Amino acid sequence: MPIEFITVPWAGHRHRIEYAWIGPPQPARPTLVFLHEGLGSIAIWRDFPRQLCEALGCRGLVFSRWGYGRSTPRPHDEAWPIDYLQRQAVEFLPAFFEALGLDARATPPWFYGHSDGGSIALIQLVGFREQHVYLPPRSRRPHRRLAV
Question: Taking the model in full, what pTM does it have?
């Protein structure tokens, strides 16, 4: 998957975002957007997005959120605000999609989010009726059931 970069104006800054398209456009299918966890990037996904997109017959979009991977780094003296996940979902994603020419209102994407990415996907889901989100389990260990 060839890595590209795009500049996204957002929150008074111009962010250089690392991204890659997986597969050709599929007009009759949604785009599957992969949202990485808090320490992730494009590299952490490895070949999984391609495999899933091929299995589903859809195009994918994988990217490193700003502050991660080879995207614009977050300044060392700047802390993430308490609402950074909400801002990523409600403000940044629409700006990113617009920069890419992806009309998320006309053809709502599907989201595959892990950890922080899952939270961003759920927040984004509130704005669209026709979106789908998959949240993988946080670990491969079986969950213990608690008696209440």
Answer: 0.83
For residue range 117-144, list pLDDT tens digits in order: 989 998 888 765 555 555 565 544 443 3
What distance in Å separates the CA atoms of residue 144 and residue 50, rounded to the nearest whole number? 32
CATH of 4-134, one of 3.40.50.300, 3.30.870.10, 3.40.50.1820, 2.60.40.10: 3.40.50.1820
Which of 63, 78, 106, 109 lies closest to 11 in space, CA to CA?
78
d(CA 138, CA 82) in angstroms, rounded, equals 22
Instruction: Parse the chain into domains and list their residue ranges.
Output: 4-134
Q: Residue 92's pLDDT band (boundaries 50, 70, 90)?
A: very high
